[in-house]
Amino acid sequence: MCVEDKSSRGRSWQKLSVPVLLFVVLLGICVEVQAQGSAKSLEPATAKSVEMDYRGGLVSPPLEKPKFTLTDTSGRPFDFRARTQGSLTLLFFGYTHCPDVCPLQMQTLASAMKKIPPRTAREIKVVFVTTDPDRDTPPVLRSYLDHFNKDFIGLTGSEQAIEAAQIAANLSPAKKSTVRPDGSYEVGHAAFVLAYTKDNRAHVIYPLGIQLDDLVHDLPLLTKETWAKP
Question: Could you tell me if residue 88 is inside a domain?
Answer without folding.
Answer: yes
